[in-house]
Model the fold of this input.
Amino acid sequence: MSSPAASHLTLLHPAAPHHASPHHASPHRAVPHIVILNDFGHINGGAGKVALDSAAALGRRGYRVTLLCAVLPVDPGLLRDNVRVECTEQFEIRADPDRLRAARQGIWNRKAVRALSAVLDGCDRANTIVHAHGWTKALSPACLHTALKRDFKVVVTLHEYFLACPNGGFFDYREQRICRRRPLSLGCMAANCDSTSYAEKLWRIGRQMVQRDFIRAPRDIRHFITVSAFSRDVIGAFLPQTSAIYPVPNPIDAGREPPIDVAANRGMLYVGRMAQEKGVMTLARAAQGAGLPVAYVGDGICRESVNRINPRAICTGWVDGEEVKRHMRLARALIFPSEWYETQGLVVLEAAAMGLPAIVSDACAAREMVVDGVTGLWFRAGDERDLAAKMALLEDPEFVKRLGVAAFERYWQLPFTMERHLEALEQCYERILSS
Done:
């Protein structure tokens, strides 16, 4: 990484013509300018992938697109797709060795504020949208304040729950259960629920108070994008009653091929971060008890614990997309055992697109992607015996094949493509600019 103290870096493809006309742009309006806020200039997870992939797709459609990010490296594909990138070249706050600097940056990132102000100086307020995807890991909520203070149209994609909950998940990491406390209530502030320490929790409370009382977010934000009905229901009570909420499903990268012959496979598959709230320990115990093979494609702090519980479990670490698909082709079912809410769970759709049925916990957003008993199964979140029982049902080759075929057919009736995502996004932008 370049020195985080350096002035911010501007990257712009030299042949960025922005000449194509966006599909839904008004013939009387100039090409809209979309300013995207995302902590990272590269894909580091599901939310980052949506932010950067949609930025690139919008650039290819002829929109003027600027990405403000803080953490290098910058994906070179963005430049090829005519996306202007402003990167402040800073640390992710949890990775900054200067913890005092990290604490200040996480609450109010002055450098990002200056960079965003410079971008907005050249923007037409009537034809610009500031679209926030991620700001909690480096950019800070101060960027929202900058855009709101200058009266720009702001829309936030709710990839998590940080606009309401200090730790972003409505989850008590110490008790390993969904948290029902009112955010920033006395009970919330007293609870040692953070995944690291109570000191970290107190810092998060301070940031949340700044966001709520000074920045007035979400109070002064009028436009929100939700990625699932489940997540909308979870956070809806904390958004302004006058909010406009737009459902824009996240896209997946899937080509239609013949469905997997799941009846010929035996192993269970988990894909994602190996953390306790993701239910990976519950899965390890269930598979061990049922005597079923299980593979974990991913990595995280619970990897060693999983191997202690289930020594036969295979843990691959992080792999690329093609390798993930290879493991899916060898699996009988995908297991999505998350014990916290999530907001969507795209891997369940990726599996369905290949004809791989999923067993999902009944406490998370992924349950709305599975018709219980038709395209997959639900189990009681955190209940290893119930999960083992549901996996045992899939020993029936006719049943698992029926689930896989139904999941495949249901997905391809209305696939979650980038084209579909962009059409919903363009309609959202048109309504925001017209409001």
